[in-house]
Amino acid sequence: MEDKNMLMIPGPTPVPEKVLLAMAKHPIGHRSGDFSKVIAELTENLKWLHQTHNDVLMLTVSGTGAMEAGIINFLSPGDRVLVGNNGKFGDRWAKISRAFGLQVEEITAEWGKALNPQAFGEKLAADTQKQIKAVIITHSETSTGVLNDLETINQYVKNHGKSLIIVDAVTSLGATNVPIDAWGLDVVASGSQKGYMIPPGLGFVSVSQKAWKAYETAKLPKFYLDLKKYKKATDENSSPFTPPVNLMYGLQASLQMMRSEGLDNIFARHRRLTQATRAAIKALGLPLFASDEAASNAITAVAPIGVEAEKIRSVMKKRYDIALAGGQDHLKGKIFRIGHLGFVSDRDILAAIASLEATLIELGYESFSPGAGVAAAASAFANV
């Protein structure tokens, strides 16, 4: 059926009608007094969402652009950094760091497993000369559905004293509790097409005072992504370059919706969706790629046995107009991923699981009792 598509991927995520209508308004001058009021409101609400009094800066970039900005503004060529790598995006931050001439040491884990915080603790404790300038971590690894223990890793960074912690919170911000001030996180990057419930195109970077101090001696080249320009403009309720006016109208509406729902309720909703999805997948006899202990609240990765992941995705899309994400790099064709972050409700999960059951039946998969997945999800919703 035309225009009946349902996004169940980790980004872009579904966009509320209220946000779409806000984006349909006529644009106004981005240097006007009226738009300054919009920026002021956005800045206030972004600080609320980030749970911080630090600067939260808006950039016209993807999440990768926000992370690159978070790296190049606070480091210099040859700086020693630790990069956590247990998935596609941890690997990307290591590549970006090397591209800018940083001395990269990777702390790795098998894809689908969480990073070991103790490994960071040992490296940082051994650095008695305080040469490690930053620890770069993916909080929610989108490629595998794993949530890394950012709080514990960050505590080791704080014990080190000199190192910054730079965080990819692209699929955790707005889905998982990321208390920036309470944990003392230095640089936190995210992207609009995830928990923010708006289309791609905006990136966000939260910057601590400790990070701004590091900025003063950082020597990596930057111009468009020079965060000091964004801070100066944001302090004046403006932007250093032409911003995506209509996308920011959408952000204004989505942040208003999020404030109305409340942080605790947002996080509880995402936990509920995660628990129901995982319960349903278990009831269908499909192996989960990440353990319950390391499960992301944004996405669930499934490694099917006895039925091909890409055939599942194909039938779901062609027959039921539901988009699921595939595996990346060496996991392509081996897993599929169900996104459940942002503008996603209990009903969406039930619809997706029911369609998944029908897909499995069509593909001849017989390792479950029809209705078991929906029943497990419904039971999880009833008990949360």
TrEMBL record:
Cofactor field: pyridoxal 5'-phosphate
Domain Aminotransferase class V: 12-328
SUPFAM superfamilies: PLP-dependent transferases
GO molecular function annotation: alanine-glyoxylate transaminase activity; L-serine-pyruvate transaminase activity
Keyword tags: Aminotransferase, Pyridoxal phosphate, Transferase
Family (UniProt): Belongs to the class-V pyridoxal-phosphate-dependent aminotransferase family.
Name this protein carries in UniProt: Class V aminotransferase
Native organism: Hydrococcus rivularis NIES-593
Lineage: Bacteria, Bacillati, Cyanobacteriota, Cyanophyceae, Pleurocapsales
